[in-house]
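Page header: ASSEMBLY MODEL / two components / 636 residues total.
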Amino acid sequence: MAYIYILPVETDPEPWIAELEKSIRKTFGYSSKMLKPGISLEKAFDLKRSQYNSSQILLQVISQSLPDAAKILCIVDVDLFIPILTFVFGEAQLRGIGSVVSLHRLNGKFYGLPCNGELLTRRLIKEAIHELGHNFGLVHCSNPVCVMRSSTYVEDIDQKSEEMCSRCAEELRSIQVSLMRI
Amino acid sequence: MKPSDISILIVDDEASIRDALTKWFELDGYRVSSAEDANSALLKLQEGPWDIVMLDIKMPGIDGLELQRRIKKIDPTIITIMITAFASVDTSILALKEGAFDYIVKPVDPDEMTHLVRNAVEQRRLHYENLQLRQHIEGISFSDEIIGESPAIKRVMEKVIEVAQTDSTVIIKGESGTGKELVARAIHSNSNRRYFPIITINCGAYSDGLLESELFGHEKGAFPGALYRRQGRLEMADKGTLFLDEIGNISEKMQADILRVIETRQFNRLGGDREIDVDFRIICSTTQDLERAVQEGTFREDLYYRLNVVTITIPPLRERKLDIPSIARFFIKTYAQSMNKNVIDITNDTLDMLVEYSWPGNVRELRNVIERAMVVTKGNLIELNDLSFFFPSAESDPGENIPSLEDVEKEHIQKVLELTNGNIAQASLILKVSRLTMYNKIEKYQLKKSKNNN
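Prediction written out in full:
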């Protein structure tokens, strides 16, 4: 039996793990397992930018030896970037196994606002489902409320739902059916 | 246009940038490939069409600016977006001047990147749409409605192709209903002016004053009722074609005005004092014999020679009977679509009858007949019965002219006289008319004389 592994790195999963697991099961039909991994954020730190290279973290995520992993989702609480962009909320391999999501820019504190635990959990779930969707082979969706809609601001994340639109859900279903045949 | 229809090539000597951009655009659903330098980029450009190329300005060997020049030589429509590590204004401005769509300074805000690519994709979409529309225009350039295989219509089509590429003035001669405007449109659609309008004005339909206002437009207050400035047809036809239908019907004053515009390519709006430059081609049509009008002094000789550079004469339908079946079938197909009727063809005997007829109203008359037949027909074939409005004795007497009442009367009296062996009293009894009436009719139709001759 395959699982979606959740790897929280240097962050306490307690406030959001149950909701996240529930949402993953509802969307993808997989049970999840949580694991404290040996991922070093230090290795991904870029001194010039004072940010963490998400691609570097992703490399560490996919090198984890987890034979029963359908997908591996890493959750961090640091500011992520990819070389061409100023920041990213997360990164995923398209049709791959690994993805990473950061709580850093999902937290109101980053914008000088008080931390809202419930809002943070909802945002994390949306970004986690979004990145896992890429892992399953879905690309960005133009439906404004679909979770697969690309978000470049945190406000964009708040506007979309935690659900996939019917088209993305249908595509996910057909991808999963074809995976089962393999 | 789906994202997967758009291809993006990323050219950067930094592998991390290439990878990051590739992954980023793949998540949007675009087709993405990358090249580490200009040479491999040029090789990839030969492999297939690319929509967007994102290229680093500073690269070892051929730099981004030079690569952009080479890309534009290969395909000037490819969208290029420059990537630069520093906000080097001079280089970026140079790149933009040389045709770059935009530039980004690394690292770029995700939102800015998303908008930039979205705009580039939109531009590309408009490019494809424009291409499709142009192809469509070119596709229909030989109007579907100019139909026929007869030598006469083929000569017309050959002449259309011959004159279309020139800018010469053309006079189209032909009877009413032969399709002079269609030929004018075909010339325009095959000319270099095809992306600009063809403006038609029916000179015969306007009074002198109105025609002047239609052609030249007017300024506000030029005459009572000129509440606004109005563009004339000449201005609308700028860079396109002006089709003057029924040119033979214009007054001497208008002839002089039109001659002046043709010679100077300038005119004034009514009530205006500014000379307006126009660039148009003139095609005109006439049902009249303009040469005779020139001889009679009703049409200016100088204007006639100005207009009569090329003449195309459209034969009347009776001179190209060979084309009647295909024209009739074309109209059946057209009206079947517009009327949403499942009429697929016409029976052979009905078609024979159409071919026999002389069609004084030409193709227009044929179109009207088919349209009426399409309205009345109940089946999926047009039959003789469906044309009873047009050929009342269609089934019994195909092809003959409908006799007048007098002809019928004359024939009938003649028959009765023959039957009675010329006995007028007997004939008047059979016909239930008085003998006096019989004498009058015989006199009128000269039947007695005719009988005596026989």
